[in-house]
């Protein structure tokens, strides 16, 4: 059943939209399919509004790992690395926004590096008004994993989840969707035979030892970090749920946007 007047934060994971094992390689056909699915979901439910975020995949993560950017920036060489990571993040963002526009979606990028300042990777300053106006105008704001100036670290990298953590305080929402390659949270990673359909905050401690990091290079911490970040947000935001799911197969993203649990649902 379609929901009405709902704002959803949707992340397209870097592993989904790029080939994470081949540097600087977008998955253009996949991006095209995902853009079409987003359009289908929005067309079928006029009350649904999105803020879209995407990871950096083989663009930002490769440069970021080389320069250690997430851990802090101080030397001239590190600042050069900082600008390289920003450039690569912007390159991928152009592919994403171009594909969304070609699908007929009014996508507009809002790069965190241009507007956000953090302290220990927690966003402390942001001019939120342009995003607010974009939503009012019926546009599709696009944020991303990106570099940011940081009060403590000099510079750092904010994951899409870090950006969402801030946005959820500005734009009340009940659902965060994290679309990737992994079907959800596995009880027995890396064997992947038991998918956990739902994780309640209260049950998490008992199972956390089974959740491992990601197999590819991921400087922002893999699955365990995602789960813990989402549960922390759920604890702070009444009624919030988050879903981690695979959008590799056509139709799954549409189903998730329509409210179905196609992966692992995180709840209070």
Which features does this protein show?
eight-stranded mixed beta sheet; four-stranded mixed beta sheet; 10 helices; 14 strands; 268 residues; 40% helix; Carbamate kinase; single chain; alpha/beta; globular; 24% strand
Written overview of the protein:
The protein is built from ten helices and 14 strands. The protein has helices spanning 14-17, 28-44, 57-67, 76-102, 112-115, 129-136, 160-170, 204-207, 222-236, 252-257; strands at residues 6-12, 48-54, 107-109, 116-119, 122-126, 140-144, 146-150, 154-158, 175-180, 185-186, 195-196, 198-200, 241-246, 264-267. The strands form three sheets. The chain has an eight-stranded mixed β-sheet with strand order 3-6-2-1-9-13-14-12, sandwiched between helices. Strands 5-4-7-8 form a four-stranded mixed β-sheet. The longest helix has 27 residues, at 76-102. The chain starts with 5 loop residues before the first strand and ends with a strand.
- The CATH architecture is 3-Layer(aba) Sandwich
Distance between the termini: 22 Å
* pLDDT < 50 stretches: none
Strand content: 15-25%
CATH superfamily caption: Acetylglutamate kinase-like
Short description:
This protein is an alpha/beta fold. The chain has helices at 14-17, 28-44, 57-67, 76-102, 112-115, 129-136, 160-170, 204-207, 222-236, 252-257, and strands at 6-12, 48-54, 107-109, 116-119, 122-126, 140-144, 146-150, 154-158, 175-180, 185-186, 195-196, 198-200, 241-246, 264-267. It has an eight-stranded mixed sheet with strand order 3-6-2-1-9-13-14-12, sandwiched between helices. Strands 5-4-7-8 form a four-stranded mixed sheet. Strands 10-11 form a two-stranded antiparallel ribbon.
